[in-house]
Amino acid sequence: MSSKTDTLLSILKLQPVVPVLVIEDAATAVPLARALVAGGLKAIEITLRTPAALDAIRAVANEVEGAVTGAGTILNAAQYEQAVEAGSKFIVSPGTTQELIDAANDYEAAFLPGAATASEVMGLREEGYQVMKFFPAEQAGGAAYLKSLSSPLAGTFFCPTGGISLSNARDYLSLPNVVCVGGSWVAPAHLVAAGDWAGITKLAAEAFALKTANP
Ligand code: 3PG
Fold first, then answer.
1. Catalytic site includes residue 133
2. 45 a catalytic residue
3. What is the pTM of this model?
4. For the chain, which residues make up each domain, given as ranges?
5. Alpha-carbon distance values, 56 to 44, 70, 186 (Å)
């Protein structure tokens, strides 16, 4: 296993659930990340879906003790570079392109590329990847689909994301090929807008308490 894979696994195994954040106002990033860390969720993915995202990554990376800041929804090499420069320790993409694989080779940050089919998984295996994001998890076939990949594609591990919440996270976390799940449910927009950080810490703690088959 490569050292980058080891680094990625050490980040993903910090917790059963990686929060996936869409941050509209960079000023909310630090209190939100502190609330998540207080609930046990240290690895935090901030998606590049808003103009505030890079400022949010920078603020969390610099100011939130205990957080491991990652960037999500990275679609090209330019975003990869911006996310790394802002302080991201891991980079997540919904899919995979050659441009992203080349960018990942240029930086220390660990890359979690997206895959949703056996062929995509096999292509990533050829590039040396053993750990992938399964996206969009529920819509692509859910836990039953992912389970059926575990025998033919043994040795590949996933962080499923998309449509996962407290009610179905266990279906994924009990699979032999799942290291953690990702989800936005731990940071709902209405709690962020209300500044209800205690409410978010409670959701994070519930998520942290979930058990995984691959601790
Ligand atoms: C992602 O980018 O991983 C997803 O948008 C998160 O999916 P969710 O909002 O359904 O949890």
1. yes
2. yes
3. 0.96
4. 2-208
5. 11, 11, 17
